[in-house]
Amino acid sequence: MQSQWPLGIIISRTLRALAAVVALCLSVDVALAAAPSPMVDQAHRAEWVFAFKFNAGTFPTSGALSSCLFGGGPQSYPSSQRYVFASKVTPALADGPGLIGTSTADPLGATFAKIYASGLNFVVWNDQFYRHPPISGCSESCGGPWGHSKGVVAWDDQGRGIIIQVTTPSWPGSGTAAAPRADDGNTLGCVDDDNVKASQHFFELRLTPTDTAAVLDALANASVVTDVTNPQLARLGGPPELRTRAQQLGHKSNSTQLLDVVLSSGVRLIAKPSQLHAPPWQMLSARLGGVSLRAATWWASPRLPTTVAGQTIVCWRSDLGTPGAVDIATSGSWSGHAIGLQGGPQPNANHAKVGVSTDGTHHYAIFADLNQQGRLTGKCDSSQNGRGGLFFIVDDPALHASLAALINGETASTAVPKTGVTELGPSH
Fold first, then answer.
1. DSSP 384
2. How many helices (H) and strands (E) does the chain have?
């Protein structure tokens, strides 16, 4: 039977239908491209990015910065903003261009710029704001049982987001150019306190709406320090379920249970609550099935020793399982230069919190908030035992191999240290 429509009309309507489909596909592509994402630089996106900033004793930077992209004035204190980085696309560590956090040509500056100059919803948290801005109940820093955690999470009106885990005291202090930080800088190298003298690490991760909800739950579980009523630190919009979760931040949690979730990227997120009084990296080893670990953190008083597999830990809970060996890295190297991996005021100190699995089977690279400070016995809520924090676990052979090489060096003794120095601001 012949069609009742002339051929010209059929062709015209078909072309219009095809055009509508193409337009819809293009709009979806544009929407996906506009979703928040870690940046390798201003033009290249990634699923995750990791950066390790060196300390002033290993790769010092000379002179003050010429400009401060996110606010503040150039400082002349001892510093290093040289760094190595890796991404999902290029997972082996390599030297990064420029100085980290200073421009849209470096991964941290490019990613933070996407948050700071946008209308994204966000929350900034840091237990060491140094009163810029002030946090009720805290002085320079917020001690336990507040979480020992720092970073920024941002999401769009669909809930698609990004998290940047940082280990820098007093940065960032604002997540938006619409409410700039008052009385202090908001660019690395332009903050009044010298927070770029020690080594630091940064981890950036893309989030789906479901991931964003899980991250907000993890932050609440870890008792992170923020004030969601301060426009410098929060803009709460987007899906109602995310707003509700974000409104819970800035309060001390009563949780005693780990939050453990695998995100859409395959990255595993474990959140330790402050009320779970156990040495953090031994706890992590047990949660990962007893996998042996090597950790490089701010190792300062009260120092936790290197522990062996199956060692009895009095500050423990039976449902945590049995930890494997946990080695404390006290030195590493890059390009033939030795890197100090202990805490303290010296220029070769380390304030990153990174680790790797060492069992020869798994390829875990771990990015954390918590140091190896606390007790195996005695005062079980001491220091980081009594603090909350996040652990991101990335299973990637190339990243694992290069991070393991970076922190491969001397190892702390299994003897319990008796003396040491405290962290930048209260750590317990």
1. G
2. 6, 19
Q: Which residues are bridge partners to 235 per DSSP?
A: 122
CB-based contacts of 221: which residues, under 8 Å, 6+ apart? Answer: 253, 255, 257, 259, 271, 272, 273, 388
Q: What is the pLDDT of residue 9?
A: 57
Pairing status of strand 48-53 against strand 200-207:
antiparallel
Q: Which DSSP string corresponds to 102-144?
A: SSTTSHHHHHHHHHHTS--EEEEEES--TTSS--TT-SSS--T
The whole-number pLDDT of residue 83 equals 98
3 and 116 share a domain?
Answer: no
**Structural domain of residue 217, as residue ranges?**
37-406
Q: Is residue 411 part of a domain?
A: no
Q: 416 lies in a domain?
A: no
Contacts of 386 (CB under 8 A, 6+ apart): 144, 145, 274, 277, 374, 380, 428
Omega of the bond leading into 133 within 30 degrees of 0 (cis): yes
CB burial string 365-390: b at 16+ within 10 A, e below: bbbbbbbbbbbbeeebbbbbbbbbbb
Give me the pLDDT at residue 6, please.
Answer: 62
The span from the CA of 67 to the CA of 98, in Å, is 13
CA angle 118, 124, 129 (to 5 degrees): 130
Model-wide pTM > 0.85: yes
**Cα radius of gyration (the chain):** 23
Q: How far apart are CA 142 and CA 169, in angstroms?
A: 11
Q: How far apart are CA 196 and CA 360, in angstroms?
A: 34
- Which residue reads 């049995």 in tokens? 322
**Average confidence (pLDDT) per 10 residues, the chain, 428 residues:** 53 52 40 80 97 97 90 95 98 97 98 96 98 94 97 98 98 98 96 96 98 98 98 98 98 98 98 98 98 98 96 96 98 97 96 98 98 98 98 98 98 81 41
Whether residue 145 is preceded by a cis peptide bond, meaning omega within 30 degrees of 0, is yes
Domain count, the chain: 2
- Taking alpha carbons only, the member of 75, 70, 129, 78 closest to residue 102 is 70
Determine, yes or no, domain membership for 399. yes
Distance between CA atoms of residues 82 and 84, nearest Å: 7
- Do 28 and 135 reside in the same domain of the chain? no
